[in-house]
Every structure is written in structure tokens, then in C-alpha cells.
Write a structure and sequence with these properties.
Layout (H helix, E strand, L loop, with lengths): L2 H11 L8 E9 H12 L2 E3 L2 H4 L3 E9 L1 H12 L1 E7 L2 E6 L6 H6 L2 E3 L7 E4 L4 E3 L15 H5 L5 E2 L9 E2 L8 E4 L2 E2 L18 E7 L14 E6 L8 E7 L2 E11 L3 E10 L7 H10 L11 E19 L2 E20 L4 E21 L4 E22 L2 E24 L5 E19 L4 E21 L6 E11 L4 E13 L4 E12 L1 E5 L11 E5 L8 E14 L2 E15 L17 E15 L3 E15 L9 E2 L6 E10 L3 E10 L3 E2 L2 E3 L5 E3 L5 E2 L3 E13 L7 E9 L7 E8 L5 E7 L4 E9 L1
Parallel strand pairs: 2-5, 11-14
Antiparallel strand pairs: 1-3, 4-5, 6-7, 7-8, 8-13, 9-10, 11-12, 13-14, 15-16, 15-45, 16-17, 17-18, 18-19, 19-20, 20-21, 21-22, 22-23, 23-24, 24-25, 25-26, 26-27, 27-30, 28-29, 30-31, 31-32, 32-33, 33-34, 33-35, 35-36, 36-41, 37-40, 38-39, 41-42, 42-45, 43-44
Helix pairs in contact: 2-4
């Protein structure tokens, strides 16, 4: 479409927009920020692809303008054009192109700002998050990737961690977490309190909680696909930042113009240098009911760090190579001295996850694109506990858990006429997992396991967007597990029907399988912090997990209202009682159990001039069933959160953003017990009691500013307060076997009032 015709069309359609005038100005800011100012002043939504305006700087002098005048000026200065969708929605596209990637992408979007700017919901039922564009969310000082996903309906962390994501009733180890196609097995710093991914270098996140694309296998529940910038950077970008927990920095710069660029990032906690109140609050939570606290003769040295390296190489206009490396590291050393008994105890814990990926993209012609990835991931957990009596070692216990993961994937995207497409792919993976517990002074292995599985997968997906009756995605994945000699079939389907211009009906169904998962260890759990271990299914008593899920819902969008309702049912087979937190007299692991989940999610959002208000509510019933437990009847699962409510109100201008949010949910179930006169322990019905209800109020605020008039350097300062009214929430109640075979009860509480701050600079 020629530019002059596009502008003429814009003029004819402008009567549908607000003709209110606004006075504003800005100097040498990125086009993304200029767009945010225009959206705020005229109460419209503008969508675009990042590459279209990446690195462009713009200035507006101070004067009164209509929306049409602002868009025209923006178009002329940034060499972009617009397509008008309706009276509140505008699409950016490249000048002189009739149909661009931005239009194709936006055809897939149902809701552009699901919670806030930077989060959208797509026609394939997935969510798309862009951390660099993310608006303020209550309680978050930075765009923490996993904490941001928790704001979406149906996602909750019962233990108040970033990593403990329960997605529609699934456990955290049932989530597939990818960083530039690298499988991540350790997904949380500070024992899960913080995401181990630097949001300042993250370009895009694709999140699935249903209707998962068949290119993703291996896990039952959600998929979190994280990617950094894959294009060769044209300019140098530098960023540094610090908050109450850590300091970080990144550098992205071209090495060979239009050919090769490099991205480097590093983040580290302050512990070891000095300790802030924010860090101390988190330590107090994760080290509850342990000796690892700064009290008396107890000393600990604990820190985390992560770093990334990425190389982008543009071979020619049709071929591109990307190399990514990530390393996540957590270390703890703790010493406790008992002067009276002349005893010393030393804990050492090291958890690492590192990996790399080599990705090749080939555009064979206008209709066929091939994406190929070779990647590996290595996870290690090493724990050592040593006790000394009169400086002589009298006990040493060790725990080790390791996962080696190798993957090859190639996929062809075949674009058909009228935006329909077919995806065809193959994936080959090899996984090895081992763990061992031993008392080294006796050279005695208390428990050990080693297992390996090779998986060969074929998958295909057909996307239809031209049917006059219904839009649909039809997918299929088949997995062959060599060591188990099993074939598993995984059909996937998404159906979307336009009932009216503002109302859509959406249904999904999918089957998934999982051959690697976590179990609770009980050998050293009384003396170690990390008591979850990765293991692989085998031919004996550890089957492959199988999940079936269906959902049906509606999506309503009209003017400034967004409504999303979804009902779902999920069934999982092959569950182990060892992973469900059951306290029973079980001699061996009880597998082949079942879990059923019934629930629905409701989301509502209303946008005003400079204010967004939203609320989400989730209802779920989660039940387990195991042979030989509870008379073979279903009982409430330990991770059930029956009712959960989250609300937020956010205010934003071009430079200031403020958000206030309140969360409430039911307490977790637990099993009560009583001790008789003869010291016999009697359990009540499994998980028939509930902890008190949970609730907290969070606040976040940011201010953006320019460092100088004639440069593109900018800064950001902000603060957050978590649990504003300092509610002491009881998160869980646990039991361990103490002396004389008695039960010892431990209560674990949430973080109290926790302030945090942010200072960030970008050039």
C-alpha cells in the first residue's frame, strides 16, 4: 500500500479516534518510549514488531497536537506507517510494504495488553511477554520473568517462590523451561526466590498453559520458552543496574557490521560484600527452621550469580547462526560452632546449571523456513555435611544429583496461501540422571540410582486461518523411548470460533508425556536444604507420566474491556506418592497413582485514560489416588489452592508508573496427627485440614528519565514494597521423624514487610 494512500485512509478513518488535543514533548528518546507517551495521552493501543523501530531515536517539540498530528509526525520522523484496526487499535508497519511481518504477527493477537503493556494473548492460546516493554507489576522491582508469569490466571506459587510455579495444578518440575532452546533444570536463585534469567537481555517469552504447540514435548504442564535477540545488533547497547538483592550489567555490540555481534551479561548477589535488608528478608524465609541463620556462632556465606554469552552471525540474507551459553550458579557454605560441647558442623551446597545451543535458521525460499538447534544442558547438585568433635571428623554425609541433557531438533515451516502453514519436525534427545547418598567415612552408599533414556520424536502442526467457519491448529507428536521400548502418541488441537466481532469461543485438547521428573528424598532431608532430586523413568516401578487436558472458554474484547474465561479438566497417570508430600508409612515408592484437576480461570481488565485495573480468579480442585493409600479412594492433593484471587490498579504516564496489587488465596491442605498416651502416632484423614488463608498487599513505582538532552542515555529509578501491611502468612506445615521415632512439626512462613529499590542506566 503506497504511503500517500495509507495516510489518506488514516485521514478518512480518524473520526473514530479521540480528537482531544494533548501537549507534550520529549528529547532524544527511543521510539518505543515515544509510542508509550502517545498511547497514554490519547488512550489508544499501538502494536509493532521490535525490529521495526529498534535503535531509532526521536524528539518532539512541546506543542498541542491531535492524535492524527502526533501519528503523522511520528511516521515522518521514524520512517514507519500505520494501519488502523479499530477506534482504539493501531498497527505499525514498514513504509512502502503492503503486508509486513508486523501485520502477520498481529493477526494472531487476541488481547494486546493482557495485564499490562508487554503481555499479549495470541490466537494459538499462548501468552507472549516482552520484558523490555513490560509495564509495572505490583511487588516487582524488575521484570522478573517467572514472577511476571505468576500474575497470569491459573498460575500460582503456594510457597511464595519465583520457581515454584504450579500451572493449572501441575507441579513445578512438570514445566518445560527453555532459554534459547537450552533445557533448564535449576530455575531459581536463592532457593527459588528469584528467577535465574536476566530480564534486561531477554527479547521474548512464549508461555503455554494449554493447547501447546507439538514442537514442545517432555513435560506435562506449562511451557516457558525464553529467547534473547537473534538479530545482528546494528548499534552498541550498554546497561547496568542494581537493586536490594544484586547488581547486573550487559553489553551488546556489533563486531563486524551487519555480520556479527556479541551479547554479554553478568549478575551477582551482594552477599559476601555487604547485606541489604531485602536480602536478609529473603534469607530469613528460605533458612527457616534451620541452623543457617546469623545467630550466635552460626556463620554462612551464600551468593548466586548468572552469566550469558551470545553470538549472532548473519551468513547471508537467507542464513543465520546463533550461539548461546548460560550458566546459573548458587553456592552456600555454613559453619555452626557449639562451644559448650566443642562440636562444629559445616554445610556446603553447590548448585549449577550450564548449557549451550547452536541454532541455524535458513530461508530456502518465500514459503519454506528451516530452524535447526543443537543444544546441551548440565545440572549438578552437590551437598556435603560434616560434623567435628574436638576438631576430629566424626560424621560426613554427601548427596549428589546430576542431569546430562543432549538435544537435536530441526523443523520446517511451510507457508501456504492465505496465511495457512504446516510445520514438520524431528527431535532426538538423550538424558542421563543419577543421584547418590553416602556416608564417606564409612564408604557406605545409603541410596543410589542411575538411569538413561533416548527419545526420538516426530511432530507436525497445521495452522488454518482462512476457514470461514472456525480457526484451528491441528498438531500431532509421536515419541519413542528406546530404553523403555515404548511409543507414546500426543495429539494436540486448538479451535477458535468468532461468535461476534467482540466474542470468541476457544477449545483445546492435548496429550503429553514426561520421562524425567523430581522426587522428594528422605535420606538426608533432615539436614539438607534441597530435598528434590531429578530422576528418569525406568522399566520397573517408575513409569512415564501421562497427562490429558481439555479446556473450553470465551474471550471478550470491546473498547477498553478485556474478559477471558476458561474451564479445564486435566488427568495425570503414573504419579508417585513420593513426590506428593504424603506422610505415610511407605516402605517403597508408590507409583502408578492418579491425579485429577478440575478448575476454571477468570480474568477481567478495564482500561481508563491513564489507569489499568484488572482482577483474576482461579478455582481448582486437585485430587490424588494411590493403591494402598486411603482405602484406594481419591483425597485432596497437597498442592491444592482451591480459590485464588489477584487484583491490581496501575497508573502510568510517559515517565511514571505506579501499581498497587492485592493477592488472596486459601491455605494449603495438611494432614493432622495426634499422639496417644502410649506414644503411638495416629493420623487424621489425609489433607483434610487447611492452613489459614493467605493475603498480602504489594506496591511498585518507577520513574524514567534522560541523562542528557543530546544523547540516548536514559535512567530508571524505582522502589517496591512486598507485603505492605506485614501479614505473617503460614505457607506450609511439615513433619520429620525425630528421636524415639516421634514426629517433629515445622511451620514455614512468608516474607514480611520487604522494601526494595532499583537504579538502572542504559546507553
Amino acid at each position: 500500500m503506497p504511503t500517500r494512500f495509507c495516510l489518506f485512509f488514516f485521514f478518512l478513518s480518524s473520526f473514530a479516534f479521540s480528537q482531544n488535543k494533548a501537549t507534550f514533548s520529549f528529547s532524544n528518546i527511543e521510539v518505543t518510549e515515544a509510542i508509550s507517551v502517545i498511547e497514554t495521552n490519547y488512550d489508544v493501543k499501538i502494536s509493532y514488531v521490535n525490529k521495526l523501530i529498534e535503535g531509532k531515536i526521536i524528539s518532539f517539540e512541546s506543542k498541542e497536537r491531535t492524535l492524527q498530528e502526533s501519528l503523522t509526525e511520528l511516521s515522518e520522523k521514524s520512517q514507519i506507517s500505520f494501519k488502523i484496526i479499530d477506534n482504539t487499535f493501531i498497527v505499525l508497519k514498514e513504509k512502502e510494504l503492503e503486508k509486513t511481518l508486523s501485520e502477520q504477527t498481529l493477526d494472531e493477537v487476541i488481547i494486546t495488553e493482557y495485564l499490562t503493556k508487554g503481555i499479549s494473548k495470541k490466537l494459538d492460546a499462548s501468552f507472549n511477554l516482552k520484558p523490555k516493554q513490560l509495564g509495572v507489576l505490583p511487588g516487582l522491582i524488575d521484570a522478573d520473568i517467572l514472577e511476571s508469569i505468576q500474575e497470569l490466571p491459573g498460575v500460582i506459587s503456594p510457597n511464595e517462590t519465583a520457581s515454584g510455579l504450579n500451572i493449572r495444578g501441575g507441579s513445578s518440575d512438570e514445566n518445560l523451561l527453555l532459554w534459547d532452546n537450552i533445557n533448564i533444570y535449576h530455575n531459581g536463585h536463592l532457593f527459588g526466590m528469584i528467577s535465574p534469567f536476566n530480564p534486561n537481555i531477554t527479547q521474548n517469552i512464549q508461555f503455554y498453559n494449554k493447547g501447546t504447540n507439538p514442537r514442545f514435548g517432555e513435560r506435562l504442564s506449562g511451557v516457558i520458552d525464553i529467547s534473547t535477540n537473534n538479530n545482528v545488533s546494528e548499534n552498541t547497547h550498554i546497561g547496568i543496574g542494581l537493586n536490594g538483592i544484586s547488581v547486573d550489567g550487559f553489553l551488546e555490540t556489533p563486531i563486524i557490521k551487519n555480520k556479527l555481534s556479541i551479547l554479554l551479561s553478568y549478575r551477582r548477589s551482594y552477599e559476601g560484600f555487604f547485606e541489604t535488608n531485602s536480602f536478609q528478608k529473603m534469607e530469613d524465609k528460605v533458612f527457616q527452621n534451620s541452623s543457617i541463620l546469623d545467630e550466635g556462632n552460626s556463620e554462612e556465606d551464600f551468593y548466586f550469580k548468572d552469566y550469558n554469552l551470545k553470538l549472532n552471525y548473519q551468513i547471508n540474507k537467507n542464513h543465520r547462526l546463533n550461539f548461546s551459553y548460560i550458566r546459573i550458579d548458587n553456592d552456600l557454605t555454613h559453619q555452626l560452632d557449639n562451644v559448650q560441647s566443642n562440636q562444629s558442623f559445616i554445610d556446603f551446597l553447590d548448585i549449577e546449571n550450564k548449557g549451550f545451543s547452536l541454532n541455524w535458521k535458513a530461508n530456502w525460499n518465500d514459503h519454506i523456513i528451516q530452524n535447526t538447534s543443537v543444544n546441551t544442558s548440565n545440572y549438578t547438585l552437590n551437598y556435603d555435611f560434616t560434623s567435628y568433635q574436638n576438631t576430629l571428623e566424626n560424621l560426613n554425609r554427601e548427596k549428589h544429583n546430576e542431569v546430562e541433557d543432549y538435544n537435536f531438533l530441526t523443523e520446517f515451516e511451510i507457508r501456504l496461501k492465505n496465511s495457512n502453514k504446516v510445520d514438520l519436525g524431528v527431535q532426538i534427545s538423550e538424558k542421563e540422571a543419577s543421584y547418590i547418598f553416602k556416608e564417606t567415612n564409612e564408604n557406605n552408599a545409603l541410596q543410589l540410582d542411575y538411569s538413561k533414556v533416548n527419545t526420538y520424536s516426530l511432530f507436525t502442526n497445521y495452522t488454518n486461518r482462512t476457514s470461514k467457519i472456525i480457526f484451528y491448529n491441528l498438531g500431532f507428536r509421536v515419541n519413542y523411548y528406546s530404553i523403555l521400548d515404548e511409543i507414546r502418541l500426543e495429539p494436540r488441537i486448538i479451535l477458535t470460533k468468532d461468535l461476534t466481532k467482540t466474542l470468541k469461543l476457544q477449545a483445546t485438547a492435548e496429550v503429553k508425556n514426561q520421562a524425567i521428573y523430581q522426587i522428594n528424598e528422605s535420606v538426608l532431608s533432615d539436614s539438607s536444604l534441597e530435598n528434590k532430586l531429578w530422576r528418569i523413568a525406568d522399566k520397573n516401578n517408575a513409569p512415564i507420566l501421562n497427562s490429558k487436558q481439555i479446556s473450553l472458554g470465551t474471550i471478550y474484547k470491546n473498547s477498553n474491556w478485556d474478559l477471558d474465561f476458561d474451564f479445564y479438566y486435566k488427568q495425570i497417570k503414573g504419579v508417585s506418592a513420593f513426590t506428593q508430600g504424603l506422610f505415610e508409612n511407605i516402605d517403597d515408592e508408590v507409583f502408578n497413582g492418579r491425579k485429577r484437576i478440575l478448575g476454571f480461570d477468570l480474568f477481567a481488565k478495564k482500561s481508563f485514560n491513564k489507569i489499568n485495573a484488572w482482577a483474576s480468579y482461579s478455582l481448582s480442585e486437585i485430587d490424588n489416588k494411590f493403591e494402598g493409600i486411603n482405602n484406594n479412594n481419591y483425597f485432596t492433593a497437597r498442592n491444592e489452592i482451591r480459590n485464588a484471587l489477584s487484583t491490581s490498579v496501575a497508573y502510568k504516564t510517559g515517565k511514571i508508573q505506579i501499581a498497587l496489587g492485592w493477592k488472596w488465596h486459601n491455605g494449603k491442605p495438611f494432614t493432622n496427627f495426634t499422639t496417644t498416651n502410649n506414644n503411638t502416632i495416629e493420623f487424621d484423614k489425609i489433607n483434610d485440614r487447611k492452613l489459614p488463608n493467605y493475603h498480602r498487599l504489594d506496591l511498585s513505582a518507577f520513574y524514567k528519565f534522560s541523562l542528557a538532552k543530546d544523547t540516548d542515555a536514559k535512567g530508571k529509578i524505582g522502589f517496591s514494597i512486598r507485603n505492605l501491611y506485614n501479614k505473617k502468612n503460614l505457607l506450609s506445615r511439615e513433619y520429620i521423624v525425630g528421636e524415639n521415632n516421634t514426629l517433629v512439626e515445622f511451620d514455614y512462613y512468608s516474607i514480611g514487610f520487604m522494601p526494595n529499590f532499583l537504579l538502572r542506566f542504559n546507553w
